[in-house]
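#lab-general

N.A. 3:47 PM
ok so I finally got the sequence cleaned up, no stray characters, all 434 residues accounted for. can someone with queue access submit it? mine expired

B.Y. 3:52 PM
send it over

N.A. 3:53 PM
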Amino acid sequence: MSCMWESKVISSHWYVTVWCSIIAISKVIIPIGGLGTRLYPITVETSKAMVRFLNTFLINFILQTLAVEGIEEAYLGVSGYVNYKSLHDHLGGGLKIRIPAKGFKLIRIRYQPNEDSVGNAHSTRVILSYYKILEPVLVVQGDTVAKINLREFYKRHKETRAFMSIALKEISDPRELRHFGVAKLDEKELIKGFIEKPKTPEEAPSRLVNTGIYILSKEMIEFLLSDEFDSMVKENKADFGANIIPKIINDGYTVAGYVLKDYWFDIGTPERYLEASLYLLRVLEPEYLEASTVYRSVRMQGSSPASRALHVDLIEKAATKRILFEGDVLLGRHIRIGDGSLISNSIIDNYTIIDREATISNSVVMDRCYLGSKTLVDNSIVGRHSRIGSNVKIIESYLGDNVIVEDGAELVNCKVWPHRVIKAGSKCRDESII
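B.Y. 4:20 PM
back already:
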C-alpha cells in the first residue's frame, strides 16, 4: 500500500486527508550475471548494465521505466567483481530518478550477496532468501528494455491465479522467431510450453516470444526456496527459460501469458542495441530523454548556462545550414559540431567533438569521442573515449572503448575490441580485431 497525506488546522482541529493506492508490485529483481559476451566489443571491459544507452547508463534507463510503473525497490543479481563494483560505485544504496511531470522518486537499491549463482533463477533465489522476500515480485533481465503496464500485468496474474506469469511480445517478422522461445498457448492464453529457437516460421506455434519479464507468485517463491530447487541447482538447471518454466508447466502449474502492447528489446547484441537506441530515439518524448532544448526533431541535453549557449549556437548553425540535422537526433552535453557536418538519425553522447564535414547517420557515438574532418560513420557504434581520424569510413561496425582509428582507414562490418589502434589507410572488412 502506498499513501500520500496532508494535514491542516481548521478551527483549532487537525484534519488529515489520506489518499491510498494499492501498488500491485513494489519490488523488482534484475539478474545481471555473466560477461555480456553477446554484446562484445561494447562490454569487453564494462558491465552490461553500465553500458551507455541514450546518453545515460542502461541501468538508469531500466530503473526509470520501472519507477514510472510504481517500483520502489530494486534487487540487483550481480555476478562477479566487475558487475558488483561498477554498479555499487554508481548506484550505492539508491538512485534518485526524475519522473516526467511527477517530480523525483528514490529507488532503493540492494545487491546479491557474494554467493555464486549458476543461472538467473538461482540468482533470484539467492536474493529472495537473503532478503526474506515472500510477496509477489517482478523479475526483469538486465539486458531488457521494455515498457510494461505493471498494473495490467499484475491484474492478469491475479485473475488467472498463476503460479508464474510471463510477459510475451508479438514479433512482426516471422524470420526473427528463430532467436527466441516461442509460446504455445491454450484457448485461455495460458502457456502450455515454448518452442526454443524454431528453425523455420512454420515450426513456431505462435508469434509470441518470452521476454524474460516475469511475475512470481508467493507459491512460486516458495518453490525457489525449496529443497527440490536446491537439487536442480546442483545439476546446473537453474535458468528460468531453459529449466524452471518447462518444469512447472510439466508439473501442471498455471503459467499465464500477458502480451506487452508497447516496446520491448533484448539488447544483448550490438545489432539489437543499435535497433533499440534508434527506435526509442524516435518514439520517446523529449522529457524522457532529459532534453532541455528541442529544435525540430533534435533533442539537446544540458541545462547549465554553458549548455544553453551551445544549444543556441547549434540552432543558429542549423538555421543557416552551416550544419545539417536530418530525422531524429539526440545530442548530449557540451558537444561541438564543425561546419559542413551532417547528423542524421543518431545519438551523440556528452563531450564529443565532431570536426568539419563529418557525416554520422543511424549510429551511436558514445561520450568523449573525437571524430575528424570528412569522416563517415554509418549504422555503427563508436565506444567511449574513442578517437577517429580524418577521412575515415566506419560502416556497419562496432567499436569498443578507447579505440583509435587513424586517418584514411576504412572499417566495414568489423568489430574492434577496446584500446586497439587501426593504422592509417588500413582496410578492414568482415573482421573482428581482438
